[in-house]
Amino acid sequence: MGEIDIRNILEVARYAGQEILKIYNDESLFNVVDYKSDNSPLTFADKKSHEVITRNLQDLYPHIPLLSEEGKGIPYDIRKYWSEFWLVDPLDGTKEFIKRNGEFTVNIALIIEGYPELGVIYAPVLDTFYFAIEGKGSYKISGKQEIRLEVTGRKKDGLVAVRSRSHASPEEEEIFEKYNVTKFTSVGSSLKFCMVAEGKADIYYRHGPTMEWDTGAGQAIVENAGFQMTNMATGERFSYNKESLLNPGFLVR
Asked: Are 168 and 161 in contact (CB under 8 A)?
């Protein structure tokens, strides 16, 4: 991964975010919504962001393949030979985009041998970056301020759990009771990972459903801040490039 310049990836995410905001702020475009076969929403912003990210990453790193939510039709018989690839969600939180609450992100991760080695999450409305490089830590950039995100100790009581704004599940209650969670907060998109990484929440549990592009960048950020992300089906570290791109449940703590 030595040839990857994180600043290049931050700029790609910013370019995509700028295109998203053009549509978000255009009353004639932001609420034009199509629906995919799984009934999930698709906006002009999803498509435009995908185009921007794909073009820029392929120009910068033509030897690295790319898997995006809006370009996911790559057969496993091809993907299974990838030792590294970009994993992209061009607009994570499309429902939040449509609700106009600002809680949507651009997600870019670099997966190497099944695990995220680099992750970038950009929140266009906040103009805030979260990013991580394996072994070099997790960071937040807001305005001109860059700070390192790092867990300082394990809490046993009074834990705060972050929940999905749009995808709650009854299975959460059992997990929250097990880990002595007493407070809750909700936010959309991959910003849940960011809240954990910067210490605003202690636990993020997700029963489902999510896809691989929903979690790759967030996992890099929480793990390099000192947290664990566990596959609830196996008890092992969460991994990527499965034959099915549908994620199992996971726990970040």
From this structure: no
Examine the pLDDT at 52 and tell me if it is beyond 70: yes
Q: Side-chain half-sphere of 188: how many Cα atoms within 13 Å?
A: 19
What are the tens digits of pLDDT across the range 237-249?
A: 999 999 999 999 9
C-alpha atoms less than 13 angstroms from C-alpha of 151 in its C-beta half-sphere: 20
pTM across the whole model? 0.94
Query: Right CATH number for 159-252 from 3.40.190.80, 3.10.20.30, 3.20.20.105, 2.20.140.10?
Result: 3.40.190.80
Indicate the pairing of strand 128-133 with strand 105-112. unpaired
Q: Looking at the domain covering 6-148, what would its CATH class be?
A: alpha beta
Beta strand 66-68 with 84-92 is parallel
Q: What count of other Cβ atoms lies within 10 Å of the Cβ of residue 83? A: 11
What distance in Å separates the CA atoms of residue 229 and residue 22, rounded to the nearest whole number?
Answer: 34
Q: Is 67 helix (H, G, I), strand (E, B) or coil?
A: strand
Q: What one-character-per-residue DSSP string does 99-156 give?
A: HTSS--EEEEEEEETTEEEEEEEEETTTTEEEEEETTTEEEEEETTEEEEE-------
Q: Where in the chain is the domain with CATH 3.30.540.10?
A: 6-148
